[in-house]
Batch of 2 targets.
Target 1
Amino acid sequence: MADALLDRLGIADHPRIIAGYSGGPDVVDGVVGSVNPTTGATIAGVKLDTADSYERIIARAHEGFLRWRTIPGPKRGEVVRAIGDELRAHRDDLGRLVALEVGKILAEGIGEVQETVDIADFAVGLSRQLHGITMPSERPLHAMREQWLPLGPIGVITAFNFPNAVWGWNAMLGAVCGDTMVWKPSLMAPLTAIATNELARRVAESMGHHGVFELVIGTDDEIGERLIADKRLPLISATGSCRMGRHVASKVAGRLGRTLLELGGNNATIVAPDADLDLALKGVVFGAVGTCGQRCTSTRRLIIHESVADAFCDKLVKAYETVRIGDPLAEGTLVGPLINERSAEAFEAAVAAAKAQGGTILTGGGRAETGLGGAFVTPTVVRVPSGKSLPIAMEETFAPILYVMTYRDLDEAIALNNAVDQGLSSAIFTGSVRSAERFLDPSGAGSDCGLAYVNLGTSGAEIGGAFGGEKDTGGGRESGSDAWKAYMRRQTCTTNFGEKFDLAQGIRFE
Ligand code: NAD
């Protein structure tokens, strides 16, 4: 199946790919195996870049930038439109490759590529709206305006769990902004990266634009470190763990470069006593169990009013026990595998810590027997004894574990929501406008996260809004709204169209 899929995606004969490779995910002689997490079998080998090939790639992206930035924005938008069409045409195959390579269920794999198509559409419109503002000058016969200029070749580092869409958020916007991309994907999803980048690169080259979409694949030590230290890349947009973000941020800051950071989350949903509990149940189950808990926006904590907690937990456990775990490509499966054995061990360690710290496992807590070979676990609900806090619940474990804690008044619930280091996504289910608006309090005293939902779960963002989070999540914003500004540089322009030399602030210098 995999060979036919790679063929349909036009990469079966790609020079980086070694069909029939028998090695695993560890790098051996410059090759990494892309492993199907469902079975543990290697799909293909991928040849990694070296210091020399890195230099060639950066040179292409730099030369490409010098040309690409001269193409008017709306014309760049036409290229992105054609890329969006190509992605549309290959959406289902590319979505299948995502599912195969990172173990998402097929609907989510296809949904991820749809997200890239959507952001491409968004970027096409944006290509005609990269506008600055004018402001009145304090001096007569002077004009002031602000304009936005292309930034340069940019480094895009992506996490394994969104191997296509995170590139899309960055690359579609970056491309209309006049930047060129040097994408360093996760070594756990190199085939999706090759297929995605090839689709975009071929379209751009067929329209005469070379060096816009470049891909560099390599280890963090050899290629990652080189990329983040590279002064030729004025912006590093990095998605991944807080640990990685802290390191990348300090390295890039050391060379006074810019970072756009999209890091970990520890997202909570508050369920108020006046909530529509059926709606809340759907939001919590999808948020906590979807993508096997491997979304940055996965629901990791449920903060529920004590008056409805017991009844809600009963329903939650019943819902969890009907969730089908298995082959993500099979119809009816809702939960696939974790990405690898290391993740399953982290899941087990977190469950053990939760128990040791006083939590009660209401359901799940162990391995799921599927007979498929991958690292499958059972989605888990841990009840936190009232009045206690579990230190493990304050951490992001990238697995389907939901910690349930109770509250008495809304201020307490909001304080619990805000009590973690990360600040990505948050949600409240309530029928009360007062509670909803308290959660969204414009003074900033409500949720401290970058995303705040009312009567929706924590995961499943639309591309129209700016996506990202505060505190240890890194503060970056990608995707919609005015996130494009991160990919450009701002210039304040002042013209004197009179005949006098006037200084600002009335300074005389004669
Ligand atoms: P990770 O931090 O292990 O790796 C992410 C990327 O960083 C990979 O491409 C990796 O190779 C690269 N990297 C690591 N060290 C590097 C270095 N020294 N130099 C350059 N690159 C380096 O994360 P992961 O396990 O792939 O993904 C899961 C994490 O990503 C979770 O914490 C999740 O919350 C987060 N995530 C965040 C968002 C968001 O938008 N906020 C989206 C998806 C995933």
Note: Residues 157-162, 166, 184, 186, 220, 224-225, 227-228, 239-241, 244, 247-248, 262-265, 296, 396, 398, 424, 473 surround nicotinamide-adenine-dinucleotide (CB under 6 Å).
Target 2
Amino acid sequence: TVLATKAPVIVAPSMDANMFQNSITQDNLAKLKARGFTIVDPGYGYLASGKVGLGRLADVEKIIGTVKQVLGRSGDLAGKRIVVTAGGTREPIDPVRHIGNRSSGKMGYAMAEAARDRGATVTLITAPTSLPEPASMEVIRVETAVQMKEAVTKASAQADALIMAAAVADYQPKNVAEAKIKKEAPTLTLELVKTPDILTEVKGNLIKVGFAAESEDVIENARRKLEKKKLDLMAANDITAKESGFAVDTNKVTLISRDGKIESLPLMSKREVADRILDRVVGMLDGRSVELIIKPFMIKLRRIRIDSDKRGIFPPLGTGFDLELDDGSVINTYIDKRTGQIWKNIRQWFKAHPELKAGDKVIITVVEPLKKYRLEIIK
Ligand code: CTP
């Protein structure tokens, strides 16, 4: 049946640890991977034999997450890289105490999972939460605002969109005590200094989405923040409302976009809110990328033809630009004036992808308008 199916195949191996680690099993798994199967690696723990090791069937959550990711591969965010932040940062006071906030991380995790299920390559940068780790995405764990800023800056360099759902502390203790502060003085004063504003400081040609948790003048405050932080979209919510805000599964947000459009969404699950935000992100990203279907002549001639209606995002015909390939290398090329084809320096890319066939889809995304673009195969 497996050989007959055209559906994607996911294998979740489960066996004795020695059997799993045996090079024969590993070679076979590598072969399956090379043929396009997706492997959900087993977990570590008690095995049927009574021993402890690597071989337990992966958690159901992880298997389901992988299924969703595989089914979403051709979703409307396929080929897109999205960075999502979640949770509330912790700013240390001494080795045992910190300043924290009530963010549960649920909105950010829902955002990350929704983006994954629509085909995006997701990096989730999360402050501590009690939520289970989502499958099929890169998860980077941080504690403080400063650490989050470093992780976001690094991940955003390659990203198409940054969605800041984290509740980042606005202030951090100026000095962190090296030893536990003792209960001696009747009062204790902490001096706080501002943390970096991550959304404002992260630069680049990427879509930026913020969340504004407000307790008064929700729309007005959110609109001001959108301007100040130069965002493309702001999701504002009133945290004083019972069914929206911290620690609950639902949220009632108003979406405010850069062009001033305001849309108040009804109360819905955080996952639904995430999808509505991503609908907007897809719309904004569409203007920054083109999808192309590989034709037989392209494979034969090792060229890519850009249809005339899709040339708008590129510099004028005959003008050079950089094209980043999937191995990270960058070639300099242009769209030929006469043929509408990209042929200069691109033969190597075709050579590196002998599996490419007519009907496959590729996506070219603007990294830096008129200067740098990225070419990827949509799997
Ligand atoms: N944010 C950020 N870096 C910070 C603080 C906030 O990137 N140091 C992001 C949040 O993740 C959120 C957006 O900015 O997406 C708005 O956060 P909010 O706390 O509402 O805004 P502030 O600028 O901190 O304004 P204030 O606390 O004065 O309301």
Note: The longest strand covers residues 207-214.
